[in-house]
C-alpha cells in the first residue's frame, strides 16, 4: 500500500467495516515505495500512517439526481498488474533549482541589476520597483514588498546595497511562505483530485508527472479522462497512463461529468488511493464551460460525499498578471485548494506568485520546470525567492 513521504503528507485513514456488496479488486502489486530524492525535506516528514486495509465503498453509490450520466466504459487496465517500474532517480533538488534559476534568470537579472554600483537611495527603490513590476509582481505586491524592504533596511541598519539585496530576498521569501503546503494523500480512500485550468496550461502533463510520483511511492492511482472534447486529449492521458502503468476511465465523446462520476465510483470499488480527474481547458470568461466544471465537481460529490478532496488549478507560469485573474475566477467558481505553476523553466518571470500571495493566497503544491516526468517539484518559498533574485 501507500505510505506518504515528504512529498505527500497523510493521516491514518479510519478503516471502515467491509460491506459485502462486491469484493474489492486487489490493487496491483507495487514496487517498494521509493522516496524521490528531494532533499532537504520542504516540510517536516509526516509520520506514515498505519496502512489501512483496502475497504470497499461503505454504500452503493447513488446516481446524481440532476444528471443521470451514461456509464462510461472502463478501459482495460494497462499493464495494471505489472510492477511499477522504478526509473533512474530524479535529479537532485540542486539541479532542479538550477533549472528554475535558469528559467527565471531574466527576472533575476533585472532585479540584480538594480543593485550594481548602487547606493541605498530613492533611485535604488525606483529601480527595484520597475524590476519587480517587469517581473509580473503586480502593483499591490510590489508596493507591499518595497515598504517591507524599507522597514527591514531601517531595522537592520543596512548601509550597503548588497545587504539590501539579501533583505529583499528575505522579504520575498516571507511573502511567499504562506503558499507552501504539502498535498495530503491518504486521509481519504480514494483521495479525489480534480484538475482545472486554461488550455495548454499543462494540466495533463502535470497529472502525468504527479501520477509518476504517486506511483513511485506505492499509491494506486486511477486517471479520469474528463477532457472529452478532443480525442487527442484522451489519447494524451492514455499515453501518460501507459507510461505510469496505471488504470484510466475514459469515454469517447462522453459527458465529462459522467466520466468523473464513474471514475470516482471505480476508484472506490477498486480500492485506489488517488483518483486524478483531468478536465478540458477553458477560460474563466467562458461561462458555460465554467458551469460545466462546477457540474463535474457537483457530480463527483454525488459519487463520494467528501470528494473532491482537492481542486487544483494549473497555471502556465508565462501567463503574467493574468494568472492572478485566473486564480480569482477559478477559485470563485470551484473553491480551489491548490495551485500547480508550470513552465517555470522557460521565459516565465515568476513574480506573479508574489501577486497571488498578496491578493489570493491559494497554496502552491507543485511547480513544473520542464516536460519530463521528473520535472515537477514541491514549492519552497526560500528557494523560489532566491531563484527570482538570480
Ligand atoms: N517547458 C515546459 N513545458 C511544459 C511544462 N508543463 C507542460 N508543458 C508543455 O505544455 C504543453 C501543454 O501541456 P498540456 O499538459 O497538454 O496542457 P493542458 O492543455 O493544460 O492539458 C505541452 O507541450 C507540454 O509538454 C513545464 O513545466 N515546462
Ligand atoms: Mg490536457
UniProtKB/TrEMBL annotation:
It catalyses: GTP + H2O = GDP + phosphate + H(+). It is an enzyme of class 3 (hydrolase). The keyword Cytoplasm applies. It is a peripheral membrane protein. The keyword DNA damage does not apply. Residues 51-76 are annotated as: Disordered. GTP binds at residues 197-204, 278-282, 342-345. Residues 363-376 form the SRP54-type proteins GTP-binding domain. InterPro entries: AAA+_ATPase, P-loop_NTPase, Signal_recog_particl_SRP54_hlx, SR_rcpt_FtsY, SRP/SRP_N, SRP54_GTPase_dom, SRP54_N_sf. Residues 66-76 have a biased composition (Pro residues). Keywords: Cell membrane, Cytoplasm, GTP-binding, Hydrolase, Membrane, Nucleotide-binding, Receptor. Part of the signal recognition particle protein translocation system, which is composed of SRP and FtsY. SRP is a ribonucleoprotein composed of Ffh and a 4.5S RNA molecule. HAMAP family: FtsY. Belongs to the GTP-binding SRP family. FtsY subfamily. PANTHER family: SIGNAL RECOGNITION PARTICLE RECEPTOR SUBUNIT ALPHA. This is Signal recognition particle receptor FtsY. It comes from Variovorax defluvii.
